[in-house]
Amino acid sequence: MKVGERGQVTIPKEIREQFGITAETEVEFRVERHAIVLRKKPRKLNLEKWKGRCRRSFAELGYSSVDKFMEDLRGR
Predict the structure, then answer these.
(1) Is the pLDDT of residue 9 over 80?
(2) How far is CA 75 from CA 59, 66, 67, 70, in A?
(3) pLDDT single digits (tens) 36-45
(4) Quick one: residue 33, left, alpha or beta (phi over 0 = left, psi -120 to 50 = alpha)?
(5) What does the pLDDT average to over 53-75?
(6) Plot region of 75 (φ>0 → left; ψ -120 to 50 → alpha; else → beta)
(7) How far apart are CA 13 and CA 21, in angstroms?
């Protein structure tokens, strides 16, 4: 495989399918031990949709906040 005039390469179809790389997939390049590594860019988790979902469960366990639960969990 050769690098094109504008620095482009084609990822073989088998590899794209194996790793779920599609036309809009973001990738990143890194240098590791004198080698170029291409990997899918990790997706950011949208935790906003989970906000407030545990409030009732924590209340049932007798906790007024997640912080108090975490303190007890860590043994503080």
Answers:
(1) yes
(2) 19, 14, 12, 8
(3) 999 999 888 7
(4) left
(5) 83
(6) left
(7) 9
pLDDT at 53 over 80: no
30/59 Cα distance (integer angstroms) = 46
Residue (of 30, 32, 54, 50) closest to 40 by Cα position: 30
Q: What are phi and psi of 11, to 5 degrees?
A: -80, 125
pTM above 0.70, yes or no: no
Nearest residue to 28 via CA among 41, 12, 43, 45? 41
Helix (H) or strand (E) holding 31: strand 27-32
Q: How far is CA 73 from CA 30, 61, 69, in A?
A: 38, 12, 6
